[in-house]
Amino acid sequence: MNRINLAAENKSRFSTAVTGLLAVLLVICVVYDPSEAFKASGQGLTIWWRVVFPALLPFVVLSQMLIAGGFAHGLGFLLEPFTRRLLGLPGTFGWLLPLGMTAGFPAAAEAAATLYKQGRISAHEAERITGASHYCSPMLIVVVIGAGFLGRPELGLLLLGIHWAAGIAAGFTMHVFTPSHATKEQADAVVLTGPNHSRLRVAIRHMERARQEDGRSFGKLLGDSVTTGVQTLMIIGGYMLIFAVIIHVILQALPGQIIPVVVKNLLEVHLGTYAMSQTSSLAIPPVILAAMLSASLGWSGLCAYLQVRAVLGPAGIRERSFLVNRLLHGAYAYIITLLSWKPLSTWLPGSLPAYAENKGYALWSDTPTAWLPNWSLAIGVMEWQFWMLGLLTLGILAIAYVWRRSSEH
């Protein structure tokens, strides 16, 4: 008990130190240059409103409603043997993985925290699921980076595929080196499954039981889900504004061109990838630049880590393995890009374009907002994301079914 209290006290001190440091940095930046701080905050707000908000809010609301309605629990029961054997994670990971891949961070973290509060998964599993389901939004990678920053939508699709493959590889590596623990769902699967109980029928019982335990009407559930989604997005927006101001002011004191790009990518993924896409004057080989973009997306920035921490912290879930997963994700993305670039360059002729020739932006101009999607494009991308979420979920179900049939024979 003393160890638990000591760990909680140390975590509280660390959180206080990080919060205090961010507050001090923000005040210094605003006092140092108020006009530039105001411009930077406006740019951070624009990125949040035109990229993060439309890409994330519908999926957070949908996830909360599906969890309360029992869908995640029923699907988790069906997928439990497959996900437990492959990644050492509960079956609900089969829903949270497609959610994270299509909605982007921190949608999976929000869903994992909800499942932990319901007692469906342990804190250790919630921590691991969050790390393995943490992906950048397809809207950011394909539309903003590929079509907007680079002028090549097909390159955005390539980066998205590498991003997904590297994330799965990182999750599998964490499974190999991290012990897993049995859950209540796994125990129920053993007890309730027998010769007279098909898995589909028992999965429906799990859905019904979860819905009854929640007990909220549809109107109440919809209101609570929207409230939770908006609160989460407000936290994300606050972090993005703070980091936009801090980055903009700090970079004015940094020399050269390489150091500002590195700092941006370490701190915030949207501004970091934009700065990296404007570095054609540095004569970096296209393959190295693509690998650096992939690594930046895998790491996703300190701002993303704090967003996830803000979701998991109040629920009492640690995020230590989350940081390890981010490092692995970035490293795998870098390596996969280097290995696949030469064979894929024949399919994607021209490699990376000279994407800074006609844009007229300086390296640290912090003005990627001109290349952000408008609302009509954002709505179209949302429809594409919903289709992708459904197809990925059905794909995982199909793979689990084939795996089960092959294991029976």
From TrEMBL:
The keyword Manganese does not apply. InterPro entries: Gate_dom. Keywords: Membrane, Transmembrane, Transmembrane helix. It comes from the Bacteria. The chain crosses the membrane at residues 14-35, 47-72, 92-112, 132-151, 157-177, 283-306, 327-344, 384-403. Residues 51-145 form the Nucleoside transporter/FeoB GTPase Gate domain. Coiled coil: none annotated. It holds the Pfam family Gate. This is Nucleoside recognition domain-containing protein.
